[in-house]
């Protein structure tokens, strides 16, 4: 029987030893209890659970915990970037590199990478910037394609070690610790500098600057993907192009939920093909922006949704278990509930306290 997996990115608090400035604002246990006490999440995950809890204590983590979860589940080598698999969702072939056009805000003591959602690059602006950058890439023997304002791809030899960090890891942070290092990165830095100088005087940035929008002054190198993945019998419900690409690469079904997340009947139908992974990212933007009210609102929305699909009343029909994978900046907390006989002694757990 398949499992229903709820991937709740940025929904968990981090451990005290790794908590950053954002968690200092979000991790108010009493505020979270006021939102969740007596709700569907508390009822669904308060009994008979198998739990696991881990944190990445590296000085500079390679990627976010939810991306590490995908890497482990699909057997993706560390040399491949999760974000670069988005190429398949845009009709491109692997291997290729992914790049993200965005903005770097230069301060007195740091350079902060903006979330591409804050930059709000239009399709027309993306095409204009790509047209300005393409000849520079061509001079280096690299072909550029820009199918989306947030996802560009190049093929060819960048002359760089493939261990890079994606924009999802760096957004909202000082870029210094996350830039490609070493002798091999010199060619990329030279190429990027030429593009930045061209964009500085380009038409798209002049128009953005005139209306007070942040200029596009960074082309973030997310990494490369080229590995053939083992087959996966599952459905991946997500609006994220990288996860859609992972589904294509592994032969899983990619389901775009549109404006509303699927209901119980839709999930039950998907279970015929194996596990169902529902990508729930309502907390991500709030965490990047350090907005505790939006983060709590995301919890309310999630609580209402799992009530609608009946997770609080037991494991949904068609599934053998339900698992919540809740991540923070470095932490991954998993709560797994299985179908169990009525006579089994049920151990009570405080899921809100675990968060």
How would you describe this protein?
The chain is an alpha/beta fold and 355 residues long. It folds into 2 domains: 3-76 and 229-354; 84-225, no CATH class. It contains 15 helices and 13 strands. The protein has helices at residues 21-26, 29-36, 40-44, 65-74, 86-89, 116-119, 123-139, 167-170, 186-200, 203-210, 241-250, 264-270, 284-289, 292-308, 351-354; strands spanning 3-8, 49-55, 96-102, 104-106, 111-113, 143-148, 151-155, 218-225, 234-237, 253-255, 275-280, 321-327, 331-338. It has a 7-stranded mixed beta sheet, covered by helices on one side. Strands 6-7-3-8 form a 4-stranded antiparallel beta sheet, with helices on one face. Strands 4-5 form a two-stranded antiparallel sheet.
Structural class: alpha/beta
Given the C-alpha coordinates, what overall shape results?
globular
Helical percentage: 25-40%
Terminal CA distance? 28 Å
Biggest pleated sheet: 7 strands, mixed
Number of helices: 15
Strand neighbour order, sheet with most strands: 2-13-12-1-11-9-10
Percent range for β-strand residues: 15-25%
Q: Stretches where pLDDT falls below 50 for ≥5 residues?
A: none
Radius of gyration: 21 Å
Count the strands? 13
Average pLDDT: 90
